[in-house]
Amino acid sequence: MMQSITSRAHPFFKQLVRLGKSARYRRKDNLTLLDGIHLIQAYCAVFGSPTNLIVSQSGREYKEIKDFLCSIEKIPRPNIFVLSDALFHQVSPVKAPTGIVASISIPELKLVSENKDKTFCVLLETIQDPGNMGSILRSAAAAGVSDVYLSHDCTDAWAPKTLRAAMGAHFILRIHEQSNLVKIAQQFNGTVIATSLQANRSLYQIQLTGSVAFIFGNEGMGLSDDLLQVTDEQIMIPMLGKTESLNAAAAAAICFFERVRQHLDTQNIQPECYHQ
Amino acid sequence: MMQSITSRAHPFFKQLVRLGKSARYRRKDNLTLLDGIHLIQAYCAVFGSPTNLIVSQSGREYKEIKDFLCSIEKIPRPNIFVLSDALFHQVSPVKAPTGIVASISIPELKLVSENKDKTFCVLLETIQDPGNMGSILRSAAAAGVSDVYLSHDCTDAWAPKTLRAAMGAHFILRIHEQSNLVKIAQQFNGTVIATSLQANRSLYQIQLTGSVAFIFGNEGMGLSDDLLQVTDEQIMIPMLGKTESLNAAAAAAICFFERVRQHLDTQNIQPECYHQ
């Protein structure tokens, strides 16, 4: 089914605009927006076609989007809505128009019966910036993290901007929102590690090959005392420059991939084997 | 001197708005804006007081800004302009108002007579996102990079948004804009390393303790063929997850800090020594 929407008063158009803007609205309806063809393809690879696709008049003519629309014309066919570029811009407020958006149900958390595979987890406290959140999720997925726990005051993990920055990591990770991080840390069966500028030990002095949970705190304020008290290790990332300042997402990437490095080192795996 | 600006027609106000918006204008006058107290303090630590400080009516009352304004009341005193919150918002379009902005001359590149200290450089080709650019500069400064070379089509390194994301790295690094990266790579006296998803060797298999230049390419397209051809090593960052996708700034941080790790490993430096 392909349908044109030409009026701002169209109920579906109004819903799309609200989904883009309001975390409360997304949560109420358990819906969100995927913006851009690559993110939508990452979703399809895991969950199959989304129910609703929204394309702009210009976007319909882009080869990549055309090919994609042809490839998914199956049963059940998704609903395809065509919007004028001006209307589409209100749905997808990114500067470089992507030409395609999908509205999806936020996937349910795949429950795992036992916790024995929780060997690599991440706890995020009060991460405020959607770009940072997305980048952390993306690096986590690439490093083999299974579960990410978010405090109640983190930015919305399922906001379109966070989804875009994470480039499909949402569909691989188990993301636990509104988590009690102190409880999770206390119950974690392994080493709970927090980064802290005041720490004496370096990231590179810690064995990371076992069951590990990294905690990262707010971009400006760092971790709360409550959470610091339940960590097993506090480490700092040694710096050789005249500054001691790293972006939260950069710090997370460095920690995650130090674990990857140690893991490969232990396994003595050759790159040909793990780089599929 | 403290001066109130109440009119949008004030020439200095008009200049500030233009400086925030236009890369061409910044370049023409060799001026830019520093947004937020921490960034301004990082500037002061290197260059002393900026000539012009702009505070909002609300910002004047913030303790941090008040203390800062008192601390810099020296000779030569900076010009301090007070703007209504509404006017200030047009100068500093960040969501959470910072309350203080400085306008500064873009610092001249400190020339170094010889290249012998160019042991750790970064080349950036067509990096488009100001947040990524800023985060890369910030990580580079923290890892001890001396020089960063930017291709002509990178996003403006001195844009307020890039400056904010880099958190003072600009005042420590030598940033060479409009560089001919192929020439720089060819003339580099050390190992020129590019990341590539097609590479066979892993970052962790390369010795990084010598003179090293890392090259990073465009967020979507990667490196140009011209530049790939003049690299000494092409490496990939091994990933253990179900995705092989990293944000450009995350990838850069991982590479920079693998060099830091190898350096510390060689030197057998204890964290107490290098964490000042």
Key features of this structure:
elongated, alpha/beta, Alpha/beta knot, seven-stranded parallel beta sheet, five-stranded mixed beta sheet, 11 helices, homodimer, 60s Ribosomal Protein L30, Chain: A, 19% strand
Descriptive account of the structure:
The structure is a homodimer of 276-residue chains. Chain A contains 11 helices and 12 strands. The first copy, chain A, has 276 residues and is an alpha/beta fold. Chain A has 2 domains: 104 residues, 60s Ribosomal Protein L30, Chain: A; 155 residues, SPOUT methyltransferase, trefoil knot domain (Alpha/beta knot). In chain A, the strands form 2 sheets. The first copy, chain A, has a 7-stranded parallel sheet with strand order 8-7-6-11-9-12-10, sandwiched between helices. In chain A, helix 6 links the parallel strand 6 and strand 7. The radius of gyration of chain A is 21 Å and the shape is elongated. The C terminus of chain A is likely disordered.
